[in-house]
Write a structure and sequence with these properties.
Layout lengths: L1 E5 L7 H16 L4 E6 L3 H4 L8 E5 L7 H10 L6 E4 L11 E6 L3 H4 L7 H17 L2 E4 L2 H11 L6 E3 L22 E5 L8 H11 L6 E5 L7 H11 L5 E5 L3 H10 L2 E4 L8 H8 L4 E4 L4 H5 L4 E3 L4 H13 L1 H16 L3 H16 L4
Helix pairs in contact: 1-14, 7-12, 10-13
């Protein structure tokens, strides 16, 4: 069997983490198969984890969500490939053989008001409906995502498998270096997008800042998003330096920010999975997060939950974790156990099994 995989998004923050962690592990588990990796020219040299004797790299650099990606994927994928695995919903429409698609969330369908441009919303709606009917198998990263996909796009639940994301061993048992921020701080990790709910987080911080010494540190990309998000940036400027944006960080820097934080606050309104809470738990940091979407499924009893639409509730829960030492210790202990229950090795084994099943002849 020969398997083509679209890895163009390997350096993106969310899906990129998925690709970098799961694809090499799947390749290792299917030594008898050959893999074609379609991505940016020279990508295998940039990411040593993809160097395998049973994998070869094919240059493909078209932007995502474009017509050009459809032509490029069709033209660059070798004709002898038996299966195409798309790690995002933008699968190649002209692919005529076995198709595996990973769906991380249905955000573009569930909250279209946050997707700028009618053409982009139309493209997302069309692609989701096509994939639920065309894909031979669909991997959903959570039960929540599977339910959303069925609710919003329909399709056959029997072709959908829930395969949770994992937490790499890298995040556990780290040695602390020098504190990355000079004052105590609350931490948020994620891009400045509307579904991340940063506006209400800032409102909650405004209620708290007179009673705590902490700054609020926001890790993630803040450029290139919507007008509403720029309003969040303007709002942050009114805090007199107590709200700090770091921009994107490489993983070793990010791990230090997790480890020194007194609390990760994750107020997201919509997440298909939500890795930052688990990464924080692995680093020994307590988590307070939204009770929305997939987060209760992923975090279980290892986080303190708040209503993401109520800044006052958010502020109260943040204050409770900061002031209640027994609660902090309990969250840290449960968090470490919860994070260890999500494994990329397990996710890769389940994914490899699906690929093997797709290679079997149809009865």
């Amino acid at each position: 069997m020969k398997i083509a995989i679209d890895v163009r998004m390997m350096w993106s923050s969310g899906i990129g983490s998925y690709i970098r962690n799961i694809v090499p592990r799947v390749i290792d588990r299917l030594q008898g198969q050959h893999f074609y990796l379609l991505g940016k020219a020279g990508g295998m040299e940039q990411w040593q984890g993809f160097k395998r004797s049973n994998a070869s790299w094919i240059g493909a650099e078209s932007p995502i969500y474009t017509l050009s990606e459809q032509w490029e994927m069709a033209g660059r994928t070798p004709k002898d490939a038996d299966v195409f695995w798309s790690p995002h919903y933008n699968f190649p429409l002209m692919w005529g053989k076995k198709l595996l698609v990973t769906v991380h969330d249905a955000f573009h369908l569930a909250q279209p008001e946050f997707t700028p441009g009618f053409h982009k919303r139309l493209y997302a709606k069309f692609m989701f409906r096509r994939l639920t009917r065309r894909a031979d198998s669909i991997l959903c990263v959570s039960q929540f995502t599977k339910g959303e996909l069925l609710r919003l796009a329909g399709g056959n639940a029997g072709r959908m498998r829930v395969v949770h994301n994992g937490v790499d061993d890298f995040w556990f048992g780290m040695k602390k270096g020098e504190a990355p921020h000079p004052k105590p701080y609350l931490l948020f990790v994620g891009n400045v997008k509307p579904n991340k709910n940063l506006g209400r987080l800032l409102q909650a911080f405004d209620l708290l800042r007179g009673n705590i010494p902490h700054d609020l540190v926001i890790v993630g990309q803040k450029e290139g998003f919507l007008t509403g998000d720029r309003e969040v940036l303007r709002q942050a400027e009114s805090f007199g330096g107590r709200v700090q944006f770091t921009g994107l960080l490489e993983e070793r820097q990010l791990r230090q920010y997790y480890a020194f934080a007194d609390l990760l606050v994750f107020p997201s309104l919509y997440e298909g999975f939500g890795l930052p809470p688990l990464e924080a738990m692995a680093c020994g940091t307590p988590v307070a997060c939204s009770n929305a979407a997939s987060l209760p499924e992923v975090c279980g009893d290892a986080a303190l939950y708040f209503d993401p639409f109520q800044p006052k509730d958010m502020a109260e829960k943040i204050s409770k974790v900061l002031s209640d030492d027994p609660l902090r210790r309990e969250l840290i202990k449960k968090g470490s156990e919860k994070a260890r229950s999500f494994s990329w090795d397990s996710a890769a084994s389940q994914t490899a099994k699906v690929l093997e099943e797709l290679s079997l002849p149809q009865p």
